[in-house]
Amino acid sequence: MATILKAEKLEKVYRVGKVDVPALRGVSLSVQEGEFVAVMGPSGCGKSTMLHLLGGLLTPTSGRIVIDGEDLTAASDAKRTDIRRRKIGFVFQRFNLFPTLTAEGNLRLAERIHGNGADDPDRRREILRMLRLEDKMHHKPLELSGGEQQRVALARAVVNRPAIVLADEPTGNLDTENSELVLKMFRELNDRFNQTIIMITHNPEAAAACQRVIQMRDGHIV
Amino acid sequence: MDSIVISNLRQRPLRSAISVIGVALGVALVMLFTGLAHGMSDDLQKRSSNVSAEIIFTRPGSMQLTSSSANLNTKYVELLRQVEGVESATPVIRYFYPSGTWGVDQVEGVEWDSFSKMNNIRIIQGHPPNGPNEVVIDETKAKRNHPVGSTLKIFGEKLYTVAGIYAPESGARAKLTLASLQDSLEAPGKCTFIYVKVKNPADQIAVAKRIDQQFPGNKIQLTREVFATIENSIPGLSIFMRVLVLLAAIVSALVVMLAMHTTITERTREIGILKAMGASRTYIIGEIEREALLISFLGLLVGFALAGIAGFGIHKATGLIFEFGWKWALTAAAIGLLGGAIGAFYPAARAANLDPVAALAYE
């Protein structure tokens, strides 16, 4: 299997007032194509910071990130945005769907942003079928349950075939039943499409569904 | 509905409507003011163009845009008739008077026979003004509920009977006898100006020079020049209209800027999501500009409709004439759209530069 993501000696220091607060202290990791990786650790250990760095939403203070052969850290802001558009799908704890758009509208928006003729009805249908959302396409987020919203968010994240999906506590806002359902979907995506997934979670059961678990503490991988 | 632009507008209908109305008011103001200015000046010009005389003989300063004085001795009429090349001359008093709530109107005192003969004006109903209390009016004024036999107030409470209706319209819409107006103004033997018709229109400049040489100190104007520049002669009109256009543009831009600024503050998290999805700065600015342009476009349509309805209503109520031209409609459209685009640009650029992580964490 090829390495799809490689991070070397990542450091991130936030400036809060006049105080430097280190969030990551030299994190290195490597993720293979098709891997489903869980990242666990106590609050404030740097999990979300690492995910934001890997997704190009933040720039590291030092270190290097290469995604699918492209160096994220050497890229300009515009280039990082472009890499994110082509190679990364995000899933958030709070779903972060567009409330004014239907489920289908949210997916089509992702396709439009992706561009390059990404509007692929077959792909969209296949994903929706797999995520059991066919009959929810014309519903707006507020008309959906939490589990359904998160599945729409997952569909949106993968509709453009990203190299990697970064999920930030995707079951954090869900009850047990919906959490299991969403995790099952993640696993199916991983199995059927060989989708690479890095998922932050506090839930040991969710982590158990992954092929590998990375533990973090105080800005380090332990 | 998967257009983020349209769904956003539908999601907040009240704010969208207020923004549209804000732009519409700017557009309607431009259309109404320019339409009124053009309508009134064109109407004046049209009425003036029915004057056949080539030369206007008057005293300097005796005739302004909305005022006049009867300070020219009518003895000049006979003297002018004797000038070589002059076919006829007829004296006119033009008097401006307060008209209802809506400003000023004008009345002329004429020697009907010579005036109507010179300018090919005929009575189409009733008879010419004979007595001191008789007035003739044109068809436009007659349509405003002034049939033959009805009465008009020109000087205070004094009533004038409509003796006849004349056509085509020319100069002031109401005409008294010269003697009647001289009497009312206590200006016997005086007039405001004298229309001079020349035997050969090709010689009008030569005749005008001759008159100037024979009667120095008076003002001699060629009718064609006076009437061609009516709009330009209104002091500051073009500056006024430009200032108005600028103000309308600023109003439109501010309305859209405020609307988009509020929208973006409310949608900070959504902008964070767009950024997380890989939307470029250009894409984000483009979406916001599209929304602003849609608001502006709707504002344009509403503004044009508003101007049309208001213009019709004001015309019906007051007789003021509006003439909407393509040039100003295009200017108003450009103002609305450009104002919207410029107004939205700052909020759009601000949104595009938001830190995605901070935006995603925005409550």
General description of the model:
The complex is a heterodimer of chains A (222) and B (363). Chain A is an alpha/beta fold. In chain A, 35% of the residues lie in helices and 28% in strands. In chain A, the strands form 2 sheets. In chain A, strands 6-7-8-3-9-10 form a 6-stranded mixed beta sheet, sandwiched between helices. A 4-stranded antiparallel beta sheet of chain A has the order 2-1-4-5, with helices on one face. Chain B folds into 2 domains: 164 residues, no CATH class; 158 residues, no CATH class. Helices cover 56% and strands 18% of the residues of chain B. In chain B, strand 7 and strand 8 form a beta hairpin. In chain B, helix 2 crosses helix 12 and helix 10 runs parallel beside helix 13. The radius of gyration of chain B is 29 Å and the shape is elongated. Chains A and B meet through helix 2 and helix 3 of A and helix 1, helix 11 and helix 14 of B.
Q: Quick gist of this model?
A:
The complex is a heterodimer of chains A (222) and B (363). Chain A contains seven helices and ten strands.
What keyword list fits this structure?
heterodimer; A: 222 residues; alpha/beta; Rossmann fold; 28% strand; B: 363 residues; alpha+beta; two-stranded antiparallel ribbon; elongated
Radius of gyration of chain A: 17 Å
By DSSP (H or I, 4+ residues per run), the number of helices of chain A equals 7
Distance between the termini of chain A: 24 Å
DSSP strand tally of chain B: 12
Mean pLDDT of chain B: 86
So what's the overall shape of chain B?
elongated
Query: Helicity level of chain B, as a percent range?
Result: 55-70%
Round the mean pLDDT of chain A to the nearest integer and report it. Answer: 91
State the domain count of chain B: 2
Q: Nearest-angstrom radius of gyration of chain B?
A: 29 Å
Number of domains of chain A: 1
Largest interface: A-B, 27 and 24 residues
